[in-house]
Each structure stands twice: as structure tokens, then as C-alpha cells.
Amino acid sequence: MPEATWPVPRPAAAPGRGSGGSTESTTREPIIQEPVPPRSAADEAPEPEATRRTASPAESSRASRGWWDGNADEYQREHGAFLGDDRFVWGPEGLDEADARLLGPEGSLNGLDVLEIGAGAAQCSRWLAAEGARPVALDLSHRQLQHALRIGGEVPLVEADAGALPFADASFDLACSAYGALPFVAEPVEVVREVRRVLRPGGRFVFSVTHPVRWAFPDEPGPEGLSVAASYFDRTPYVEQDEHGQAVYVEHHRTLGDRVRDVVGAGMRLVDLVEPEWPAWNTQEWGGWSPLRGNLIPGTAIFVCARD
């Protein structure tokens, strides 16, 4: 379960956080990169096999940690300009929290304790800190958190699994997750339960995921991605596995109804469901996200939840 900035596109994955339309990079270079010894052709591992099969919580978590630790450098190098250092964007459409205010009205975050789940390089947490909040950035991937250290700032970083949050009950006023953790866990209701536990009464949890309808379509940005190719109701996980059958990347599909039931089943109240429209200024493609598809079908679902 990579609690990280958005993954490299997969059939049900999403791109990195948007920069509000700016294409200028604010990410410092160089990217952290340990020397990699040269490899011969014989040493090269075969490409993972993509399949649909069951994947347990333990297998999903193990695969996600390994995938993000192994791909964080390339991910940050390729997508750092889009992510920026201190923006809070909910999805590839570019919906910015500075405009959406799903966590609370302008000025309301000052002095609040906020947990970011799947923080990656902690871009959202830096934005929260600039708003006067006291954020904590949590991620499963050690390598992603190294990039958070590289960019800098005073945000506390925690390496942990979203299904077992290492915090006391009622530790936070708010929690948020922009494409972090929830798409990659086998039992997302357990993550929501953990979030509810660490929230104070009256707290809010806002999270974004790939819109569930996207699972029925090919992950292609062009016209070939506009025809239904699979059953929306097939919850079989998407798995990439090595030559030994071990999962190296896993995503789990939940229908829109499943997501609602996960929220309610965890004891939270659904306040709003936001489906951002594709804005005219955003002309970029990222994996299966594109202006063509974004103007026709939703790409992101944002769940605004409250702990009563």
C-alpha cells in the first residue's frame, strides 16, 4: 500500500499532485540517487506480468513498499515539476485545496493538528504548514520520505502503515490523503477506522482516489480509452508480479458504493462527494488522464468525511 504521492499510471492508478497549472519546477535538484552498479543483460529481471488476481493485505503492503522504494527516484525526477514542493492538489484535474477548501474555510486551519496519509515527499503537508496548521506526513515508503527530507521544511515525517497508525486516540483535528494508501490496500475500511480513531470528535477526513468508473475503461489518454473494456463490478485486484509469482505492484478496485460503505462502516459520516471537472487550462496528459477523457468521464473522486 504505497502511502505516497500518486503512482505511475496503472489501469486504476493516478498521476502525481498537480501544480495548479504551473509547469515551472520548484523541486530542488539533484534527486537523491545512490550509485547503481552496471548490470549485464543476464542480470536484467524480466518485466513484471500484469494480471488480475487476489492479493492479501500483507502481500499488497509488501509489494507497495518495495515498489515505491524502488521507483521513488524516477517518480520524483519525472513528476517533480508537476508536484512542486508545497502545493496541495487533489488530483490530475488540478483541483487545488487553496481554491476548493475541502478541509475547511480559509483561515480555519491555523493551529490545527493534521495527519497527511500517503504523503510521499510531503508537498501537501508543506502547504498545510504555510496555512498555520501543524501537519504530520506519514508514508509507507522510506525512499519517498527521503525526498521529503531533500526538499526540506519542518514537517515531522513518519514511516508507517496506514492500517496501523502509530498515534494515540484523538491526536488530530483533520486527516487528508491525495491518492495515498486507500487505492492500494486490500481492506480500506480498516484504514478509515484507524483514521477515525486518531481523529478528535468533530474532525474531518478528506481523501481522493481514482474515480471507480475508470476501472471499466482502458488506461489510455486517447480515443482508445473511451470504450468500456471490463466490468465495473469486477473487484479483482490489478497485480503486477515477478517471474516467481510474487506481487511487485497491487491496486484494489472499489465501486463508488463500496467506498461509501467503507466510510459509513468505519463509523464516519459522508459529508460530500466531489468529482472535479477537467479545467480548460490543463492541457497535459498523465497516463490515462487527459483533457479528452477528462471532459467526458470523471477521473477523481474526493470523499469528504466527518467524525461525529
Helix/strand order: EHHEHEHEEHEEEHEHE
Distance between the termini: 27 Å
- Report the mean per-residue pLDDT as an integer: 88
Q: Helical stretch count?
A: 7
Find the count of extended strands (DSSP E, 2+ residues).
10
- Strand residue percentage: 15-25%
Radius of gyration: 18 Å
Main beta sheet: strand number and arrangement? 7 strands, mixed
Structural class: alpha/beta
Which bin fits the share of residues in helices?
10-25%
Shape: globular
Major beta sheet, strand line-up: 4-3-2-5-6-10-9
Uncertain regions spanning at least 5 consecutive residues = 1-33
Keywords: Methyltransferase, Transferase
GO biological process, one term: methylation
GO molecular function, one term: methyltransferase activity
InterPro entries: Methyltransf_11, Methyltransf_Superfamily, SAM-dependent_MTases_sf
Structural description of this entry:
The structure is a single chain. Helix 1 (57-83) packs parallel to helix 4 (142-151) and helix 5 runs parallel beside helix 6 (256-265). It contains 7 helices and 10 strands. Helices cover 24% and strands 19% of the residues. The strands form 2 sheets. It has a 7-stranded mixed β-sheet, sandwiched between helices. Strands 1-7-8 form a 3-stranded antiparallel β-sheet. With 308 residues, the protein is an alpha/beta fold. The model is unreliable at 1-33 (pLDDT under 50). The longest helix has 27 residues, at 57-83. Residues 11-29 have a biased composition (Low complexity). Keywords: Methyltransferase, Transferase. It holds the Pfam family Methyltransf_11.
